[in-house]
Design brief:
Blueprint: H1 4-26, H2 29-45, H3 54-75, H4 98-103, H5 110-116, H6 121-133, H7 137-144, H8 148-162, H9 169-188, H10 191-197, E1 198-206, E2 218-220, H11 222-236, E3 240-245, E4 248-253, E5 261-268, E6 271-278, H12 281-284, E7 289-291, E8 300-301
Parallel strand pairs: 1-6
Antiparallel strand pairs: 1-2, 3-4, 3-7, 4-5, 5-6, 7-8
Helix pairs in contact: 1-2, 1-3, 2-3, 3-6, 3-7, 6-7, 6-8, 7-8, 9-10
Length: 309
Amino acid sequence: MEEPSRLAERFEAHRARLRAVAFRMLGSLAEADDAVQETWLRLSRAETGQVQNLGGWLTTVAARVCLDMLRARAARKEEPLGPAHISAVPDPSRRVDPEEEALTADAVGLALLVVLDRLTPAERIAFVLHDMFDVPFAEIAIIVGRSPVAARKLASRARTRVRGGTVHHADLTRRWEIVEAFLAAAREGDLKALLALLDPDAVRRADRWVIPATEPAELRGARDVAEGTLRYARTATRFARPALIDGDPGLVVAPHGRLSIALTIHIDNVKITEINVIGQPSRLAELAISLPDTPTGGNIREDARGQIT
């Protein structure tokens, strides 16, 4: 077992991030500190000699602790964050220590905390971990006990509620344009255009249903993702069209109107950072797919038989 002093030193290196994660999940610095302390206790009792990514391990444990606290709060039917809780949020008008200022910087104002407090515990965990701390849905799925697709849907629902039930028109338009540009570049076999759309660290993950056994299920890096896209673009893009998938712009491939593949596309700072190619029927059945009026087509929906109309 690792020396206690060395273990404590490694934990302290992650304390600030863990506290930030816990604060965004719980909306209270006092409860965040409790969650961090519980994370430390679990670490001190665990065998972590084989853990390669201690930061990721600690984030997972802290998230599970916060999820338990949120569920306990929901079971007690506590009121959403309101005037009685405001003292738990640092007041930006007074002088606070640098760590507290860091916690309340960026998007974590009282208004957001109020909205987050109205999410279900699982929605809040999925949204905070993915949208604020870029934790992959595969890891979030383990924490909330759902499939990665279900975890992504939790975050999507939470994102819509945080935005007040609507997606900002300008943001949606921009993401539609990026998805359409991606499809056009794939159809034209334009490697340069694809590279311009992809984040340098872009990731593409694909179901085994849609790629040969010789093709890696996961590709990392803009060039590998772009080249992997072009290997199958000629046949797949013939029937591809932009669509809203769980409320976000993506692509569907529907030969003769029957859905066979869906591509969920995550866009951050006008660059594509993640593409998930879904072809497994059970996963496709979990997706909410529609196409509102756009420059690329009419209004399509998926019916109960998986038919795109």
